[in-house]
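Q: Hi! First time doing this. I have a protein sequence and I read that you can turn it into a structure. Is that right? Here it is:
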Amino acid sequence: MELTIQRHCVAQQENGLSPLQQQLLDEAQRVRIVSAPTGAGKTYAFQKALLQGSRILFIVPTRRLAQNIAASIVDDLSKQPGWSPTLATRKVAIWSSDQTIKLREQGVEHIRGLRIRQIDQLDPRKGGESEMIVAVPEVVSQLLHRTYLDAGQSGFSVFDVLDAFDHIVFDEFHTIEARGFGLAGLFAKLVSVTTESGSVGYGRAKVSLLSATPLNIHPTLLALGVADTQIAQLHEVLAEQGRALHGDVQLSLHTLPSMPALVQQYLTVIQEEVAKQHQVVLIYNALADLRRDLPALMQLFKSVDIPPRQVLVINSIDDSANHHHASAGYYSGREQDPDQFAILIATASVEMGVTFRAANLMLMEPGFAPMNFLQRYGRAARKGKDGKVAVRLDQTLTERHPWLRALQTWVSERQGTLASIEALSQVLSQEAQQQFQSDPTNTPTAYFGALPQQAVYTSGLYWQLLMRHASSHSHRKAHLRTH
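A: Yes, that's right. Below is the predicted 3D structure, encoded as structure tokens:
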């Protein structure tokens, strides 16, 4: 079964930005919930803000995503007039456990203190310059809840963070779990309240939550007391002309017993794509299946003259190591550059944080939820390129997941025709949409789920711990208690 998802674009203004990208820079409301398809350039908008002198804290869910975003921004900045690689590197910092290890290897002992000084240097009253810090949420929380108050830095608190940055961004916010919503809830609440002086919000930061497969977090923010008048729900509108996100993509569904069986069917196409210096991407649901199939996959690739050294295996377990060249010949490890490989074989970890080099052919298992499917699908055939996405299904998967049966029916009824990306998003999200039909605040966004009430409780616990922290004293504690 197959159909073609039509080429789609976003409108482009004279300055090169799409309407949504411009809104991200100009929107006056302090909390922004942002929905835009994969490849729409949500990150690029904040790179533009950096060039205009803004200071950005960009929070991402994984170390690999932090690494890749920072590398991409440094590379892009280095090509700007008046920018050098040295200047670009100085403007972009990474806060992650990987970076912590590197700093320790360089002899830095007080890493928390270093990061607090980095924030302090952003203070415009001290002549701070534009800068972007790309961080994982755990590191930001550790700074706010640090066990030991370093000398000279005991006064550092969440209010300093809100003063230091123009934008605080949560990328891929659909990955936020209820138990981890406290940090986002804290920032959103404090930038939207009416303060004791009568102004709106502490500091100057605006908080943006970005996703291509958004959760409906608006009710959660309202339950936390975030003012509805300070919440903007922003959506990228697709257009027939403008900057292309994806070309025509042939989407096909195959009922087969294994991924090697799917690869066998596409072996000639794989060989042709590699010969064109394009990447081919395989995405598994389960790491155990990937590892079981690797010997068979290596043999298939060898049969069309693709050696194992051109294969990179990406998953959360292997990514915990540095450079690694296995005895079977393929590579793994988070320090590897995916651009240097012809074949990427990955698990769900590839849904975020891996940049593909002209990957116009993707063979994938569907994932366990509609948002997994769409995130995977959206990684292929970017920038207006045409491509193919082949999905392996089996009876176990379709019996377990009603949304897969709905997808099969939808594709079968439209066999050989053209369909829009909006139509695909709607069929994938229709199960989740049933939750929101009676919600008067619902918008045309195709939501892929919602946060449970637990997110409100855990945000409250996060707030309580912060009030009790040694850095929250005097007026800081009073502000937190008031709100």
